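Supplementary material to the annual report.
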Amino acid sequence: MLLDATASGLFPIAPTPFHPDGRIDEASVNTLIERYLAAGATGVTVLGIMGEAPKLEPEESLAITSRFIDGFGKLPVIVGVSAPGFAAMRSLARQVMEKGAAGVMIAPPPALRTDDQITGYYRQAVEAIGTDVPFVIQDYPLTLTVQMTPKVIRQIVEENPSCVMLKHEDWPGLEKISTLRKFQAEGSLRPISILTGNGALFLDFEMERGADGAMTGYAFPEMLGDVVRLQKEGKRDEAHDLFDAHLPLVRYEQQQGVGLATRKYVLMKRGFIASDAQRKPGAALTDAARAEIDYLLARLARHDPRARI
Amino acid sequence: MLLDATASGLFPIAPTPFHPDGRIDEASVNTLIERYLAAGATGVTVLGIMGEAPKLEPEESLAITSRFIDGFGKLPVIVGVSAPGFAAMRSLARQVMEKGAAGVMIAPPPALRTDDQITGYYRQAVEAIGTDVPFVIQDYPLTLTVQMTPKVIRQIVEENPSCVMLKHEDWPGLEKISTLRKFQAEGSLRPISILTGNGALFLDFEMERGADGAMTGYAFPEMLGDVVRLQKEGKRDEAHDLFDAHLPLVRYEQQQGVGLATRKYVLMKRGFIASDAQRKPGAALTDAARAEIDYLLARLARHDPRARI
Amino acid sequence: MLLDATASGLFPIAPTPFHPDGRIDEASVNTLIERYLAAGATGVTVLGIMGEAPKLEPEESLAITSRFIDGFGKLPVIVGVSAPGFAAMRSLARQVMEKGAAGVMIAPPPALRTDDQITGYYRQAVEAIGTDVPFVIQDYPLTLTVQMTPKVIRQIVEENPSCVMLKHEDWPGLEKISTLRKFQAEGSLRPISILTGNGALFLDFEMERGADGAMTGYAFPEMLGDVVRLQKEGKRDEAHDLFDAHLPLVRYEQQQGVGLATRKYVLMKRGFIASDAQRKPGAALTDAARAEIDYLLARLARHDPRARI
Amino acid sequence: MLLDATASGLFPIAPTPFHPDGRIDEASVNTLIERYLAAGATGVTVLGIMGEAPKLEPEESLAITSRFIDGFGKLPVIVGVSAPGFAAMRSLARQVMEKGAAGVMIAPPPALRTDDQITGYYRQAVEAIGTDVPFVIQDYPLTLTVQMTPKVIRQIVEENPSCVMLKHEDWPGLEKISTLRKFQAEGSLRPISILTGNGALFLDFEMERGADGAMTGYAFPEMLGDVVRLQKEGKRDEAHDLFDAHLPLVRYEQQQGVGLATRKYVLMKRGFIASDAQRKPGAALTDAARAEIDYLLARLARHDPRARI
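Predicted assembly:
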């Protein structure tokens, strides 16, 4: 089933679990899938920035994707296909779609500056992967350095019917969600799904501004799913209470570089993966950092029993 | 009295209060000074990035600085003197030191890349302002795009005896504090003061890693002062409890661009300044944003009565 | 007399001559003016990037500007007023216009990325300096990192009636000139003057694409004036012959950083200025570099007797 | 035979010839090889930035590499293996070395800033590809935005015995060659080969500063070879005479983006390749640009009969 503009809920960004010797830990992939589904995931995204995709051999990337597609059954699997050239992007996109992926995610290359360069890039990318492949725009200026205005996003959506979703992780970004939803209310933008990332640092308010859900890799996907659900049910205070309890750890995890190490460490402690190993090159946690995370988990456990480890 | 390496505690980054018509609001400057002192400020920093310094005429900059120097009495006033050229930097530095400033703060210009370029820049800056003017290194890659390793900071400190403080706002930055303190423990770096900024997003742990205090403009300077004090007294849990209660607002305020509008809005609601006006160009808050901040304040007031407005 | 869209010919970018001890060399300013006028200058630009403007005290900037205004009589003097804040920009713009400047030149700050940010910046700048001050857009991505498409330039021109000129120094940039002239032929862009910079590296073809003249600081302004004139007279081969003879030196001078040192060295050897001193910080020529320039001058002298020194 | 520090002479950067329909033009690869050898090439570099490498499928990259290895016989073939991840870099490096490549070239990714980041990256890259694979540092800040000081290059060379060559294309860069050669004269840097790129814009003087040869793709490789040879024979004026005759075209070709289109157009006119087609996305020449290049060729033919077409 292909991804479409009605996608919502919780799409975890999956890490790639490794054994300490660097081999892919397939058993942990299976555990991850179980846990994500138990947490209420409505889909999943693999081979994203936090999935250590550039460290994988092509056949490994395909194998992991297939395993997630099998495990998620009818739920959509989105595959990151960003690449420095369109040949590699097309090749990966065609292969994963054949295997049953629901769509692909494309981040703009860092050199893009002007509005025309950005919209031109997405036209060329769609020409490369084919207009039959649903795709997600990744809008992440903090890491990618490319700045897309709401007008530019609208133009990409309007020019490319296969664009069905925005992965929103601009920062600050609340007004961007409001502006895009206003475009739609005015009729100048067709419906698209907006899932938010940026480590969930603003998920509480993003839902209130009109986001459809979360697409990020915070090590407690249950919290993401709960906040999305509570906000949709109108339980605003409850949503914020839960979010605020997690915010000290959310904030800690959302550090460039060391963030993935933090995430894998917590996922390991929670039994989602067997080891927090990263393939080289990867930032390791110091003893001081591990002690800080343990302290944050202990404090969190007072409010959320799922943090009791 | 000149700034030296023993500086610690709470140095608020002062905003510049304006009347809605754009004139400087001198009465609010006085109120700010009173409130900062009541909050336990041990110094203050003016004409920083958040002080709208580039929007001030030279005589206005000097007048505000003088007013803070008068109001803070024997407590040190640090003045931001970053400028695209050394002529303007020297001129401002000499003038504010004559008026009684304790030292100046210098941020590197965005074009600097290599270690040699950065250390060379600080040598030239010191030559320009004079070796008798104590100065603070501002290390803020998120905004300035210049990345300084601990070794580069050490070299700047060792080459320039007038360097007495690091305004640390790297992100992630906890390991940087630990590394610099380790350099000192090993004897390869002389003592310097480390105050942390970056909107206080990591103040809780920065104190535990060895920071001497906070230098940032969060709209509740009392919280900053309390966390610094509690950590120094060894009351770790109390420090984190207070910090965590504020973190949702700290996080909201620490957004590029809209952050200053948030800060001034809260300071206005708290009676620190009469108006939240910014000089042009300035990002305004939408109604939605104001409502979000009000909601955050109401939630915060449950834990910290100072947020009851 | 104010600058308007009919400006053309040769506008040298004037360096600021210093004595070896760092004082401004006013006698050399006078010599520069004489030589520029003798070379056929139809105007001049002061306080540009190559004029070491950030190293000047405000009163020095005004004094130099006044001297050029006096010396150039009825010919237009353009003053660079780019600044990190609008207060300084407005202040300098108002002062130089009062002294008789013909217009000002404004470069975008390096942080601008999206089309909206760039056009918004120029709207704010015009609000700051006043709509009665004619201004020049400086489009120099190689140094400023800001990329403006022809559409963005058109929007700035259309939104701001006081915009009368483009200083074109994009690289590659020939198609940009053609596109802007096509906009005008189609009626979607009102007339503006286009003078080209970038060290004259493409002046030969820029004239053929529709430029009105040269605005750059190459140490042989006579060559710039001659190429502009020959191209306007339809003497294409002659224009290229002269240009090609100078190209090895043009190329050498158009190096970031060391370029100004090269330019001042040649101007000194040619008697335009008494010393090639730069104020600190400035890149010095090595002995090897000086020998290379001398060799290039000797080779040039075989084709252009003005290089015989 | 493996690449070593004695490499010198002319290493053309080979473009990838395509048929107008996008297929690789293998006959033109053979012609290119013949012409390069006839021009005196002492080696060749494939899959570089100008080889449209990111547009090739992996098997295509290997096929082209093999064809060059066969064609060049005992002369060394260097393969560009820069990639966003070490998995792809290792994989390509191992495969081409098995096929008989002499070494690989590695450019740093654009995000690198500090000296430690750059030297750390090369250590990790060598760990990935293996210490038995000779490699070339590509130092090209204009395109890659990474700035390496001579000290950083020295550290990379000293830390990694498999580093045998610097592809020097910093700009300005003459002093960098002199500094590296001075390091070697002082004994603080072991011998490495320095070949220069940057479109040959400074090849004339780079040879005088100590370069061992040229590694760039200018459409007249014969000129590159001749200038290298003449300079080595001490025929300085002859070298400059030839270089200067070509400089107008060298300058035209060394434009970002449109440069490759220019190069392929000239190579096609010269019979090196059958078509100037690029795979998408690629910048096309306008009629005006083609006419300019034709004019430059006609002018060049007066001095160098090889430009008569």
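The longest strand of chain D covers residues 163-168.
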